[in-house]
Amino acid sequence: MNILWLQSAGCGGCTMSTLCAESPNVLELLEGAGISFLWHPSLSLETGAEVRRLLQRIESGEQELDVLCIEGSIVRGPNGTGKYHMLAGTGRSMLDWTQSLAPKARHVVAVGTCATYGGVTSSGENPSDATGVQYEGSHRGAALAADFTSKSGLPVVNIAGCPTHPDWVTETLLLLAADELSLDSLDGFGRPRFYADHLVHHACPKNEFYEYKASATKLSEIGCMMEHLGCIGTQAVGDCNIRTWNGEGSCTRAGYPCINCTAPEFEEPGHRFTETPKFAGIPVGLPSDMPKAWFMALASLSKAATPRRIGVNATSDRVTVPPSLKVPKS
Amino acid sequence: MSDTSLIVGPFNRVEGDLEIRLDVADGRVTAAYANSPLFRGFERILLGKPPTEALTITPRICGICSISQSVAAARALADAAGVTPSVEGEKIAVLMHAVENLADHITHFHLFFMPDFTRPIYQGRGWYNKAVERFTAMQGSGLRAATDARARLFHIVGLLGGKWPHTLAIQPGGATKAPTSRDKIRIATDLKTFRRYLETQLFGAPLEAFVNLSTVAELDSWATGDVGLFLQIANDLGLNEAGRGEGRYLSFGAYPSASGPMFKQGTWANGARGDFDPALIREDLSHAWMLGDTAHPTRGQTLPDEDMGEDGYSWCKAPRLNDEVFETGALARQIVDGHPLAVALAQEASVRARIFGRVLEVARTQIALERHVAQIDPSQSFMEPVVIPDDGEGSGLVEAARGALGHWVQFRGGEITSYQIIAPTTWNFSPRDSNGVPGPVEAALVGAPVGEGEDTPISVQHIVRSFDPCMVCTVH
């Protein structure tokens, strides 16, 4: 399976993250699966005229293309021309290239939340009129039409995340190479379900604090960050705390909230990223699939039942009260 | 060969998109124009947002210098709030920042720069087969070893910062995670693993031996590791004469501590060290597709010229210090810090010098970080409480892998009213200014040989990549 990888208007961080794949590294992993790059901007030798000739061959149909990966959002500005990002050396906008090459590819894969939904590049006043490849925020229909399907019959596969986890990218590519990714494998926003069926909350080390709503009141305290610090891990999709990042990391493990970076429009939460919006003192936005009345009842009950150890630790910057010892009865 | 013009792009194995236009006469580049063909407008995206949001937004300017952006934003906010971060929290920020810079240098050397020497044009050179074995794109043994080592090194950022890139762990008051003694031991172990990689593969000798080099003659006798291989290539191809800069260097100073920065702040011009005065920075817009006047970043604006007027040829502004062009990066940092080998290379200012500036910094940073980690005190607090006022202004000046990075923020009524950023590659890849003076890479390209029939000249590739450009930062 061959891949053409193009970097559009983004930070390049999804490529940089993918290079953090381990056991084996991303180069050995893809090679072992028979996956090769026709061209990748950070990895390939070819540059300048060599690349322009390759793009021409793909566009003319002379070179078959299995997977078109797009990293970064597609900019449409100014005034719909796409000239805020001209693909260097080609005199054509990335918007134009994307629309021209996507129908030639067997699969189209958007890598990262900029490419999937617009992401941070489309934040604020969205100066470059940035959008995702097939979604503008949560609305389908963007640089590619709402009903676009690639030659395989699939819509754009959306590997959302800011950045993407290395394994989300490599495993999606491996599944495509094995012909094991179908429409059923994608969720309602086009995200591969192998990671999007999980919540960031799953395996979060703060779960015991969450059970008792024992909350951190400021960054650096180790309690649950849902009540005060803007954490959306109970609603955000991603297996971040199951597979972890860069060894044993995750956002919540490092003491800052999940900001829902796998979701459309995460870049404009309508409140500060590290502050939970509240209505009458109660956090707005409850855990996914939880009836509100039950949540309120359970939360007040568990809060009242918080053991001292958990309550004290929640507002400390480290474990200060250890679990009590269970001495076997003689 | 008659006068001709070449467009080189997409110019890959740099971070982001780059196009270089060349005027060529008699087989030499006579003029070069660097175009950053992407505008995203982060400085405008931040307008109207609460100042704290810069901590989430600005790292996402760049996926390779993300932590540098975090640190610059955190420092700008701390400056505006009139606070200093917790001493131990600052140590964590320095550690994560230095790890990113180390990883970036390794990525540049192996993945971005060295593969060019495996091109068939070099077949038959004495070093060619070895270069192919070590540096073939995606396959070379050296390149793969570096990829593994880099991923392992980033475990330090995983542990302290949750993930790389794009952490929120670095805050104006310090760091969100208080590491335990066990964490500290684990970090020291990760560093030891990285040293083993450096000593067995990149240097082929103890790091201290490289750091002790003090003259170009001593450097020229270095024979081991990938560094030795590069030296052999560089001297064979005359890379000590290629891509020569003006010998003017700038460093904001890297990695603060109670006893001063690990690498000093200052300038280097005409063979002498000077002080750096941030008030003398101006961004010139004469050849950028930007509207407005030349201004200091505290008064600067970002107003893209939708019509892309014909005086402009890049989305990149042209920063100048006291009206002069400065080169920034690892070589600049090491010269300004006064390391004798770097100072010996200051006038050479070549492709080779830039690479050795980076390699020297890798060795020095690794040694310094080992000592730095030993000084972290897990019993202390890692975060000072910080209240960001409703109105304020501040700046955060740091050193990213590629050089001097500055954030200048102003806010009123809890909303950002101005956020200006000058990234390292904005300095190095700046277009011409109103005096017609080209930016550093544009000047360094003049004189580069262009072979008959070459549409993407190899000499130009070596020179451009020796700067390790990060175009996504440049045009933020």
UniProtKB/TrEMBL annotation, chain A:
Subunit and partners: Heterodimer of a large and a small subunit.
Annotated protein name in UniProt: hydrogenase (acceptor)
Record keywords, A-Z: 3Fe-4S, 4Fe-4S, Cell membrane, Iron, Iron-sulfur, Membrane, Metal-binding, Oxidoreductase, Signal, Ubiquinone
InterPro entries from the UniProt entry: Cytochrome-c3_hydrogenase_C, NADH_UbQ_OxRdtase-like_20kDa, NiFe-Hase_small_C_sf, NiFe_Hase_small_N_sf, NiFe_hydrogenase_ssu
E.C. number(s) listed in UniProt: 1.12.99.6
Organism whose genome encodes this protein: Actibacterium atlanticum
Amino-acid positions noted as binding [3Fe-4S] cluster in the UniProt annotation, renumbered to this chain: C240, C258, C261
Sequence similarity: Belongs to the [NiFe]/[NiFeSe] hydrogenase small subunit family.
Automatic annotation (TrEMBL), chain B:
TM spans (from-to): none
Keyword Ligase: no
Essential cofactor(s): Ni(2+); Fe cation
Sites where the protein binds Ni(2+): C65, C470
UniProt-recorded Gene Ontology molecular function terms: ferredoxin hydrogenase activity; nickel cation binding
List of residues binding Fe cation: C65, C473
Binding site for Mg(2+): E43, C62, I421, H476
Pfam families: NiFeSe_Hases (PF00374)
Subcellular location: Cell envelope
Family: Belongs to the [NiFe]/[NiFeSe] hydrogenase large subunit family.
The protein's name in its UniProt record: Hydrogen:quinone oxidoreductase
